[in-house]
Amino acid sequence: MGSVQFGVFVPQFKTDVAGMRERAIAAEEAGFDSFWVMDHLLVPAAPPTGNLESWTLLTALAGATSTLRLGHLVGCNPFRHPVLLAKMAATFDQVSGGRLDLGLGWGSAEDELRDLGFGPATRRGRSEALAETLQILRLMFAGEPFDYEGRHFRLKGAYGLPRPVQQRVPIHIGGGGRTLTMPLVAEYADWWNCLGQARHRLEELATLRGDARISAQYAVGLASTKDAVDAVAAATARRMPEDGWGRALVGTPEVLAAQLVAERERGVELFVLRFHDFGDPATLSLFGKEVAPALRGA
């Protein structure tokens, strides 16, 4: 395994650009390696709610930070034609100075896709389209003209210039499906992002990932004192239920560090954390000072 990394996941709803910028800056100052947003046009399972567009938001965050890697967990492939996605990704990599991590999934929020007119494609069809997107992205990032003939996309004389700053933009594929997701991970991904609800199957699914490194998502309740644990645990359970996020990690810095060490022993290299208080700067600072060092040292 490589060295341990920490990321912060902050879904950008019920907030504004200033609030997201404040959290990204705080994450960078606290020593986090990456900052992640969601890629939805509607907030899943919620009434009409303000929700910032993800790529535009990431560009603003790139301008406010200098070392933090930035990306989606995960980008919804049906939203964008692969040529447009490649152009957006390469441009963002230029804007950020080579700090893009490109997260992708085949789109599992079927109500959102249907209601917003993105077509009636089956789950298998969306998975096949993602495979073609991943092939086209690599061709576009190479910068040389090419033709492409697939079931979902057909291109003639396409090319991607300028190229990304990075020689290889890291690809993160999220999910836990043995049939439609893990084969894509094994063939195309640099990172497999295990959803919280699939973490109980991590060892089983990890055998299907090929050479991809393992990242995983966690609901986290970080309490500054023992007296605050119960309230933090309640907030964590309310905002990130176990059926969607898996078992939450909750406790004081010492307890949380021990929980993460145990997860590290399962093969996780990148911990993507969604905090109970939406990544309040004080909580990010506490994690950076009192939790992260225990794992980085180990």
Instruction: Report the CATH architecture.
Output: Alpha-Beta Barrel
Shape assignment:
globular
Indicate the percent of residues in helices.
Answer: 40-55%
CATH topology term: TIM Barrel
For this structure, what is the CATH homologous superfamily? Luciferase-like domain
Rg (C-alpha, Å): 19 Å
Structure in words:
- There is one protein chain.
- With 298 residues, the chain is α/β, with parallel strands linked by helices.
- The chain has a single domain, classed as TIM Barrel (Alpha-Beta Barrel).
- It is built from twelve helices and twelve strands.
- The strands form two sheets. Strands 1-2-3-5-8-9-10-12 form an eight-stranded parallel β-barrel, surrounded by six helices. Strands 6-7 form a two-stranded antiparallel sheet.
- Strand 8, helix 6 and strand 9 form a beta-alpha-beta unit.
Summarize the structure.
The chain is α/β, with parallel strands linked by helices and 298 residues long. Helices cover 40% and strands 19% of the residues. It has one domain (5-297): Alpha-Beta Barrel (TIM Barrel).
